[in-house]
Amino acid sequence: MIAPPDRTPLPRDFFDRPVLDVAPDLVGRILVRTTPDGPIALRLTEVEAYDGPNDPGSHAYRGRTARNAVMFGPPGHVYVYFTYGMWHCMNLVCGPEGRASAVLLRAGEVIEGVELARKRRLSARNDKELAKGPARLATALGIDRALDGTDACATGETPLRMLTGTPVPADQVRSGPRTGVSGEGGNGDIHPWRYWVANDPTVSPYRAHVPRRRSS
């Protein structure tokens, strides 16, 4: 008999560690999104680590801005950014306050609130695609910039909360280059900082960075 996932909230000290320790440890954990229409629970299957000043792929590589301020802590808070003029992506802040690092939530399996996720992701061909990719994940959960700075470790009523879930054994977690990251930050030999559950159908396909061309 398979034991149900642990619904204990993750404590703040889980996130108050180096991002390269937190990221692979997030695989298999559960994110709960509470909305007026009901809750959605997601089992994380793919994440990416971004290590601030040590990482040319990070939004915080060149320092603090109004956009990335949440990345500087405290840990356990949510960093949401808007990209390509149409998509939101969700991250969880890690490490000591004042030093920017975060884990991008790339993909997951919707385990509760599937009907609600389907309404938000009408283009999904099946339930495995509901949160297969960071923008799809954010759309399925109803994540936008209004949730930037939300404390995912808070007690009481909160729109986002991380639960212990069922951690994935280390021998079932794979690592490799981050998706769509350019330059040195996309070099998998230097930054193999994408982590995923081996052979899980909800994991997004790897895509190398392709420079955007300006129209003539």
Automatic annotation (TrEMBL):
It holds the Pfam family Pur_DNA_glyco. PANTHER family: DNA-3-METHYLADENINE GLYCOSYLASE. This is Putative 3-methyladenine DNA glycosylase. InterPro entries: Formyl_transferase-like_C_sf, MPG, MPG_sf. Belongs to the DNA glycosylase MPG family. Gene3D superfamilies: Methylpurine-DNA glycosylase (MPG). Its EC number is 3.2.2.-. It comes from Streptomyces alanosinicus. It comes from the Bacteria. GO terms for molecular function: alkylbase DNA N-glycosylase activity; DNA binding.
